[in-house]
Amino acid sequence: MAHSGGIMAAGLGKGRIPWFGKDINLYGLFRNDHNIRDLVAAGAASGVSAAFGAPIGGTLFSVEEAASFWNTELVWKVFFSAMIACFSTNVLLSAFEGHPTQLSNPGLVRFNVFENLTFDLIEVPVFIFIAAVGGLTGSLFVVMNYKLTVFRQKYLHRKKWIKVLEAGLVSAVSAVAAFILMYSVNDCTKEHPYSHHAITTKLGCSGGDHNSMSTMFLTTPEGCLKSLLHDPLEMYSVWSLVLFVVVFFLLGVWTYGLSVSSGVFIPSLAIGAAWGRLIGLGVVQLFPDQAKDVGKYALIGAASQLGGILRTTISLTVIIVECTGDITFGLCIMISLMISKWVGDFFTTGLYDMNVEVSGIPLLSWEPPPLCEDVHVSDFMSQPVMTLLSVERVGHIYDCLSGESFNGFPIIEQDPHYDLMYRGKLKGIILRHQLLVLLKKKMFCPEGQLPTANVNLKDFDNPYPVPQRLKITDIELSDADKQCVMDLTPYMHLTPYTASISFSMPRVFRLFRGLGLRHLVVVNDNTEVSEQRLTNEPNLLVLPTKRPLLLRLEGILPFFLEN
């Protein structure tokens, strides 16, 4: 749901449906990186809010995981969208169930309210143990999924039909495994009048008994989770819970990353609830007078398992509290999530961070890595970088765009005291897509003349939301065009962010993260920059972006697993 919400927000912000050729001019103001980024953060929060009926938790989830940049002004916008999503879901679900005026369905997934559920202080060590187990199993989940993700990218994602075949194979294996367990495990228990599951079958059981294994596999994952959290002690045997945890864990690892609309929230909660309930059965056997309800252990296990996989603390605490509607276990849930995160971080990163790393997405973490105070910006800056003059020859611009993949080009004022053609004081910066638009619109002319073409802001905004952006190969220029000149002064950004060449990595890191930058120009003390690197010339123009910064971070703190 978080992914779906982000996709919908990005599409609405662009205001264009390329498949139907529709363009909603009303959303033209949102066609920039800043607004699209904020809309995606709000969409992710709305998706979580609609799924769990947790607008506050969805907002905090957006802070911890979805948003790459955050400010106080964005808080009320994201929370408002999450609240509207929760209300809309409530209205639609209530209308679907036949009582549109009784809004009793705040989310798609509800854990139901725990009645008269309390805990003793002597049970806190058990909760801590459950949290540690959640961190270990979460790390195992991440490691196995990492190996599988690398294998998928290397062999399975080359052709679309292989993706479809894999999804069908996972579905078939899941169904076969479920029916084999239901028919082979003769786990007959008596039907309880207060059970919360929806589907029961006998499958070899006689009288009023039913097969508890079928309850976990035939019902929906949400129904299975409710059953594990709320059903009485005698509903599930130890053997059934062990088999369910092993099979569901392996299927969860295999399923996450398929080319289907699937998530990790509900499967992880169900797995954790199962082994948490299993630990609860052991505690009941050891301390029958103190522990009478295994639901509390299932709840802590569910939270610990999900926290051990995702490594988020505040948002998951609030989401679970909002889903249960009970603040009694708020502190225990928070402690279990913190411990599961600490234990998990000792072995691996979180699942989302791992996928970002494997996919090569240039997304920085919130804090710079340790042990990098002595690393300077000159150690990881992109070099050499192509620079442009204020009035530049079209042929040189075309060659820069064709030969380099940079998305920003510094503009300099040539210094007559140097023999280098492209060395001088920094005047501004111009983006790649701006240069492409200027070339496409032929905003150039022979030297000494004025351009006859016109360009406006809408021309620069139009290429943004199109999936296939304007490329240099789409622009055709004659030899005469390449001899013309282009005045870049009216289009460049006059005050780009700069950094001294002596800046440390943590300082540059915080500039990128705190200001939400994509480019940063590094200059010497005289704001002089140069296109080329000379052995005896340290005063360079460099343009660090997120990707080279991430590459340097990988060199300092290598990823937890390597091929």
Output the keywords.
20 helices, alpha+beta, 51% helix, 4-stranded mixed sheet
Structure, explained:
GO terms for molecular function: chloride transmembrane transporter activity. One of its GO terms (cellular component) is lysosomal membrane. InterPro entries: CBS_dom_sf (IPR046342), Cl-channel/antiporter (IPR051280), Cl-channel_core (IPR014743), ClC (IPR001807). The chain crosses the membrane at residues 39-62, 74-96, 124-143, 164-185, 236-257, 264-287, 314-339. This protein has helices at residues 2-14, 33-52, 55-66, 72-96, 124-156, 160-184, 212-218, 221-230, 238-255, 265-286, 295-310, 314-324, 330-345, 351-359, 394-403, 432-440, 457-461, 479-482, 505-515, 546-556, and strands at residues 16-17, 22-23, 188-190, 209-211, 388-389, 391-393, 408-414, 423-431, 485-487, 498-500, 521-523, 528-530. It is built from 20 helices and twelve strands. The strands form five sheets. It has a four-stranded mixed beta sheet with strand order 5-7-8-12. It has a two-stranded antiparallel ribbon with strand order 1-2. The two termini are 32 Å apart.
Distance between the termini: 32 Å
* Count of DSSP strands: 12
Measured on Cα atoms, how large is the radius of gyration? 29 Å
Relative strand content:
5-15%
Given as residue ranges, the uncertain stretches (5+ residues, pLDDT < 50) are 531-544, 550-563
The average pLDDT score comes to 79
Q: Strand pairing plus helix content: what structural class? A: alpha+beta
* Strand arrangement, major sheet: 5-7-8-12
Give the overall shape: elongated
Helices, by number, come to: 20
Largest sheet: 4 strands, mixed
Helix content: 40-55%
